Amino acid sequence: MSSLNTNLNGKVAVVTGAASGIGKQIALTLSAAGAAIAIADLNQDGANAVAEEIKQAGGKAIGVAMDVTNEEAVNQGIDKVAAEFGSVDILISNAGIQIVAPTDQFEFAKWKLMLAIHLDGAFLTTNGSRRCPGIGSSIVPSGSSHRTARLAPPAPSFWRASM
Ligand SMILES: NC(=O)c1ccc[n+]([C@@H]2O[C@H](COP(=O)([O-])OP(=O)(O)OC[C@H]3O[C@@H](n4cnc5c(N)ncnc54)[C@H](O)[C@@H]3O)[C@@H](O)[C@H]2O)c1
Predict the structure, then answer these.
(1) Mutate to test the pocket of ligand 1, among 97, 125, 159 (most ligand atoms within 8 A of CB)
(2) Least CB-packed of 1, 12, 84, 88 within 10 Å?
(3) Beta strands in 42-135 (DSSP E)
(4) CB atoms < 10 A from the CB of 11, how many?
(5) How far is CA 58 from each of CA 27, 36, 63, 134, rounded to the nearest angstrom?
(6) 70 CA: nearest ligand 1 atom
């Protein structure tokens, strides 16, 4: 786990897609810097497990069931965080999926799913968090450095374009 050269004591961070992978590592890093963390993920069991890991290490955390493509679920999840910790100061909009296929075999339904998670998810979690006390300029949508890659098969081009 990397460390941050900053003190986040008293701050509350929501990290989407934090039940695993990059989001989990972001959550652990923000927790080590002192923030209370909401692990917001489609995978509630996984979110609860990461929250438990943070609490075992002496941090503050809750697991929150959240489908970032669903406005009602996002707002309910954010409300749960605000009720538990009193504010949302930091939003890391990290939830994402990777679907890689040649452009001529990429199904439209998969394209729409990626856009919903990557773009609608960033929009809904940003708007949802803005309704809470605390949120300021600390909204971090994450993407991929591959986003400018060429749109040519057989590269994972549609996934790159969605990030
Ligand atoms: N791992 C890499 O090297 C890499 C590189 C570049 C970009 N990315 C992108 O970063 C993102 C995260 O990658 P990762 O490796 O951590 O993936 P991961 O699969 O380990 O984690 C993604 C998390 O997002 C959650 N999630 C999926 N759909 C969701 C939804 N609708 N609502 C809420 N949560 C949802 C999953 O349950 C999972 O916990 C992906 O979009 C991935 O494409 C990853």
Answers:
(1) 97
(2) 1
(3) 61-65, 90-93
(4) 20
(5) 14, 11, 16, 23
(6) 31
Separation between Cα atoms, residue 53 and residue 43, nearest integer Å: 16
103: CA distance to ligand 1 center in Å?
21
- How does pLDDT run across 33-90, given as a tens digit for each residue? 999 999 999 999 999 999 999 999 999 999 999 999 999 999 999 999 999 999 999 9
Pocket of ligand 1 (CB under 6 A): 16-17, 19-23, 41-43, 46, 66-69, 95-98, 117, 144
**How many C-beta atoms lie closer than 10 Å to residue 41's C-beta?**
29
For 12-144, give the CATH class.
Answer: alpha beta
